[in-house]
Amino acid sequence: MGMSRNVEECCVTSHPTLKETTLSHRMATENSHAAHTLKPYPYQVAGHAAQGALKLTDDGCVLKPVQRPPKGMREVVFYDTVFNQSEKREEILQLRRLLPFYHGIVEIDTSKYLKLENITNKFDLPCVMDIKMGRVTWEDNADETFKERRQKKWPLREVTGFSILGFMVYNHQKCCHEHYDREWCQKLSTVQDAEKCFHQYFGGVQFDMTSDILGQLLTNLMDIKQWFTTQRLFRFIASSILIVYETNCSRKLGKHQKSHEQSETVENMHQRSPTNLLVDTKIIDTAHVFPSTDIDDNYLFGLENLISIFEKCRQEYAVN
User: Does the keyword Ribonucleoprotein apply (predicted)?
Assistant: First the structure.
């Protein structure tokens, strides 16, 4: 509880006008979206089932339930801080491009949601994977029983510094997506198992496109690594990297269509280019982000191992 208060105080203190800006943003968002028709988000591969599934709005965005305190408020304050229009720090401006675009808070039937960019919206047939980063995925005040339970569930995490929470691949023969859930992924016990899992994930696309997809993915991951190597603002615990790639073999580029009225703003904020549209990679699940003045070695350890494995995969596809 003390740590969560520190996060909120740190964020608000850095931005004296944050409360007023956030409140007006929330109210405008709630009023304009109260009548939206919601649908289940079809590409959720992990997380938040207990709090309520992700929802898809009729303007093409994703609603993520605000979790119970202190996690929920911590994530709201994090997004409010990073996407505060008065923010000028270069580290924050760079971080925005690594996150789904944030449209504020929506309240529907007394439930509050983070309204976020739908990362899959620019793809025809997206394949999605959720990878949780870090060997340590618990807060500093976690008891030993909780730590041991986490370690037993995900034994590979201690070795690689990451864990695959779930993924979805499009099966062209059956014309449907196949979902590999948390229970399936928890059976991955060796680095070789993880490598086979990644090969299975990239099996949704033609073989000759896989090297291009992995090349773009590695570029995206190196951008994330560059940010974590230089930033001294945050420590990310139990955060994930969401990977989405296009498996529609009839095209090489993603959609340019506007998904909602602020799509041009999203394009400008994230500086999208055609070369990025085979793959998109975003940092998600930020309910355990805390202020820090040190390098986030826990996150970087997993990220560097993840990059190494994907580089090996790309070399194997190039040789074959």
Answer: no
The predicted pLDDT at position 267 comes to: 39
Residue whose token pair is 């979206």 = 33
Distance (Å, rounded) from C-alpha 115 to C-alpha 29?
Answer: 9
Q: What is the CATH number of domain 126-247+275-317?
A: 3.30.470.160
Weakest-pLDDT range from 132-136, 148-152, 219-223, 260-264: 260-264
List all residues 6 or more positions away from 63 whose beta carbon is below 8 Å from its beta carbon.
38, 54, 55, 56, 57, 106, 108, 113, 114, 115, 116
pLDDT single digits (tens) 63-109: 999 999 999 999 999 999 999 999 999 999 999 999 999 999 999 98
Is pLDDT at 176 greater than 70 in this prediction?
yes
CB 119 within 8 A of CB 242: yes
- Tokens for 86, please give them: 């008065």
What is the pLDDT at residue 53?
84
Query: How many angstroms separate the CA atoms of 106 and 114, rounded?
Result: 6
Could you say which DSSP state residue 128 is in? E
Q: Determine the Cα–Cα distance for residues 61 and 65; give it in Å rounded to an integer.
A: 13
Model pTM score: 0.82
Count the helices and strands in the chain (H runs, E runs): 11, 12
Residue 121 token pair: 């919206």
Do the strands 102-108 and 55-56 form a parallel or antiparallel pair, or are they unpaired?
unpaired
What's the token pair of residue 221? 């991951």
CA 241 to chain centre: 4
Give the residues across from 116 on adjacent strands.
62, 102
Q: Which of 314, 244, 254 is nearest to 280 (CA)?
A: 244
